[in-house]
Amino acid sequence: MTGDLFAPQPAAVSSPRLAAFDWRRIAADLDEYGCALVRGVLSPEECTQLAAGYSRLEQFRSRVIMQRYGFGKGEYQYFRYPLPDLVAELRSALYPHLAPIANRWYAAMGLEPRFPALHEDFIARCHAAGQTRPTPLLLQYGVGDFNCLHQDLYGEHVFPLQAAFLLSQPGQDFEGGEFVLTEQRPRMQSRVEVVPLRQGDCVIFPVFHRPVPGTRGTYRVNMRHGVSRLRGGHRHTLGIIFHDAD
């Protein structure tokens, strides 16, 4: 797929943390594999601080015990507004890099609407439609916990890409607990992608659909993600979803 997707948007180049990454490669990986691994976005100190914040209940709007709803085992909490500074920075600075890819994907799949260049404008659209609850979240897993394959859809307005940041150190803080992505192409068996995250790494992946070229044109491929069973220790993850919930 080609197009003007690699040009950085104005708000994106203002973030030194993200401007240094190879967004051409990230876009190409998303097209080819349905996900992109970005190494070392967060420092170990930032990861530790974010994970430690799980116990600060005042910064969250709700807590979900996954087993109660058949989502898996483990738990997560949704942040409330105003978001912590680092979470807000990541959300607003990632979005302008991803909006051109999202627009190109929607055009290829024949979907509407198109997405504005700035996250604040997209959030204004969500809020006007009654989607006002923030969706960034912290997830916590212990031994035996896992996250079933799912899609993070929270209302009519959905941004088609999201990001997850591993806050714990594999092999030191936990064992197992791999990030898993599956795609189901028409008339084919599911394909699985396991992403080897390290502490501070980010994986960018589709919320629900992505376009895949085929012999009869572009297919709309269904995507789901989850986390495999934790075999030891504790694992924390920061999830960045760009649309708000109704």
Can you offer a commentary on this structure?
Helices cover 26% and strands 32% of the residues. The protein has 246 residues and is α+β, with helices and mostly antiparallel strands. The chain has a single domain (17-241), classed as q2cbj1_9rhob like domain (Jelly Rolls). Strand 12 and strand 13 form a beta hairpin. The longest helix is centred in the middle third of the chain and has 25 residues, at 85-109. Residues 1-13 have low confidence and may be disordered.
Please provide the count of β strands. Answer: 15
Structural class: alpha+beta
Oligomer: single chain
Q: Which regions are unreliable across 5 or more consecutive residues at pLDDT < 50? A: 1-13
The side-by-side strand order for the widest beta sheet comes to 1-11-7-15-5-4-2
How many domain modules?
1
Main β sheet profile: 7 strands, antiparallel
What is CATH's topology name? Jelly Rolls
Q: Calculate Rg over CA atoms.
A: 17 Å
The helix/strand order is HHEHEHEEHHEEEEEEEEEEE
What would a concise description of this structure say?
This protein is an alpha+beta fold.
Topology, pairings included?
Blueprint: H1 16-19, H2 23-33, E1 36-38, H3 44-52, E2 60-65, H4 66-69, E3 72-73, E4 75-79, H5 85-109, H6 119-128, E5 137-141, E6 146-150, E7 161-166, E8 174-176, E9 179-184, E10 191-195, E11 202-206, E12 209-214, E13 217-227, E14 230-233, E15 235-241
List the defining traits of the structure above.
246 residues; alpha+beta; Jelly Rolls; seven-stranded antiparallel β-sheet; six-stranded antiparallel β-sheet; globular; disordered N terminus; DUF2086
